[in-house]
Amino acid sequence: MDNSLLLLLVPQIIIAYGITWGIRRWAMRYNVMDVPNARSSHTTVTPRGGGVAVVLTVTLSVIGLSLVTGTLITSEILAYLVGSMLIALVGFIDDVRSLSTVHRFGAQALVALVMVYLLGYPQTFQVPLFGIVEVGIFGAVITVIWIVGLINAYNFMDGIDGIAGGNAVIVALGWLSLYGLSFNPNISVVVITIAIIGGCIGFLGHNWHPARIFMGDVGSTFLGFTFAVLPLMLQESQVPSLTSAALLLWPFLFDTIVTFGHRMIQGKNVFAAHREHMYQRLVIAGLPHAVVSSTYMVLSLMGVIFANAYLEGSRIILIAPLALGIGLAYVTYLFSTRYRFAIRPIEDDTTHHKTETLQQG
After folding, report:
1. What is the pLDDT, as a whole number, of residue 104?
2. How many structural domains are present in the chain?
3. Which domain holds residue 145?
4. Which residues pair with 73 in a beta bridge?
5. 125 has which bridge partners?
6. In this predicted model, what pLDDT tens digit does every residue of 86-129 receive, in sequence order?
């Protein structure tokens, strides 16, 4: 990879920061606001839709970087641009008008099917403990579930300041280190991950705690889609199992799966809005947004190490995220029960009012 491409991060960050500033002004003018309710992890009315800045910056950067690298627009990048813009459009409509679950999932599944058609799908999977498993045409079904699932998992995890954008930077850096800095780099991965890094850092200038604007579904679903289709862009000699791709996102996936399963066991609507994710429970217990978001970023950074070890042949490394996940769940339990009252009261950084709504269980 031409390291000079990394120099283009600076203008990308500046552009993303400026676009986010403009969208915040627009959202305030046209009342596109997130009003706190019983399920919110914030206490002040805040503009939303900032993810549009990420989408625009990434899209423009991908096109620009493709031209700079002399590859023009590859078929993989063109497919990504079409799919990601469609997902972002669905997310934007959901931010403004609130789509039904059926319409939202239906649209996402349709885009996922298009991606499977354009980018293909793996017909063999390397499954831990079982080795290589032939799945044939069922690989298409698994891939659609993977794409739709990751889109929504990332959206579910965008509930506190900086967590979605911050982790996107770490995960993109992971992809860049694994497949962009190698002897035979994948140019599509290089272009997209550099664009993600620049766009998200610029956005975080407005979204880190205390956030002045929220990402919204338009940004979180866009990022989830991006990380879901990156494995499909790799050449055959580079294709990892979905296990290695999932390791880069293990904190988000673990939190989502555990919360999903817990609510299902309790007979609750798993798709209804709630504050039962582990990261939300930590904030409710009194930990600052910045601390929780930073913790998840560190866990994602460890995921990069796990993925690298897995690709080098280590299978025992799969125990590491599971052990860390169990540890995270235990820490969440402690803060939610035993230590909860020891860290009250919390004060909002912008209003300096006690955030009583965050302390109710």
Report:
1. 96
2. 1
3. 3-359
4. none
5. 133
6. 999 999 999 888 899 999 999 999 999 999 999 998 888 777 66
